[in-house]
Amino acid sequence: MSGxxxxxxxxxxxxxxxxxxxxxSIILLWGLGVGALYFCxxxxxxxxxxxxxxxxxxxxxxxxxxxxxxAFFAFMPFSKIRKLLPLLMLVTVILLLATFxxxxxxxxxxxxRWVKLLFFRFQxxxxxxxxxxLYLANFFDKYQKQKxxxxxxxxxxxxxxxxxxxxxxxxxxxxxxxxxxxxCLLLFFISGIKTLWLIPMAVIGIPAVAxxxxxxxxxxxxxxxxLHPEQFGQGVNYQTNASLRAISAGGFWGQGIGSGLAKxxxxxxxxxxxxxxxxxxxMGFIGVALYFIxxxxxxxxxxxxxxxxxxxxxxxxxxxxxxxxLFQSLANVAVVCGAIPSTGIPLPFxxxxxxxxxxxxxxxxxxxxxxxxxxxADIEEDYYNYNENEDxxxxxLNEAGEYERL
Length: 406
What we know:
Helix content: 55-70%
Order of helices and strands: HHHEEEHHHHHHHHHHH
Largest sheet: 3 strands, antiparallel
Radius of gyration: 23 Å
Structural class: mainly alpha
């Protein structure tokens, strides 16, 4: 049984030099996110951190690091990125393991998701999204170049994915682990891997997910609260109900920046997972429409880059990065609106947290690289490998007397 492969042969002549629409959409998402963070966190920052700009300053500092990462991945040739990939994977695994070391980790609400690095905290599971997408893109590129590949040759990718997801689950970060697992399955599907691998994944994965949900009482409470919201209004659904009130107060035109701080203060940690409620209350339906227009432009341009990119590594990597940002954004908005149970997944570019900002900008840098039209060494390598293989085949046929070179 063969899998679907969205990657056809793409001639270099179709490769664009740049994608202005993608770059502009990234900048607009970042700008809207920083603005939303200011008017959603100013009251909290002034009360808890000693200054209304405290969280914004942290976000801007993380943005500087993120834009440096964006520039690195935007201008670094794919061939060099692939050479650095083993180091990136090793660092990611070390950081994931460091969350279990008391001297380095930071525990919140029973979850160990952060490590203390010098003067800041970092969430390794965010980096794991980017690292695993690049690893799978590199792996699937090599897989497609093999002439005699079978189900067993996919085993290394399955094991690496299982390792990363298991370490994230062990941190009690169920939502991120499940999200990363689904992104990986999507990459397995679109890369043309034989779909027989999906059967054991489903057989093992579905019962494992169900067991992890039942194992933790608070996860069952979230599901029960989602199914019966009227019974958990002051419990697990408190944030969601407060968020829905803030969204309703926004109306069509919005309440204006700063006018809804009293309502927003009733949402715990509004600057994190529920920041979209603050944006909606301040900007109303117009602000929501603006956000989704920019997000759709971003997704359209990113996926177009993926479909046009002649490098399979760049195409699959761009598809994975775009999907991670897009689906994470949609999942966060769905939680804020009460459409799905609470997950704890941040809104890219908006939610307070340097880890998400840095990794999201690095992903954007990779996508910009795929759209730049840089003379990727992978393309030239494939061209010369193809000619060399063709010459070898002609030589064998000539020696056998079956072909005479003209």
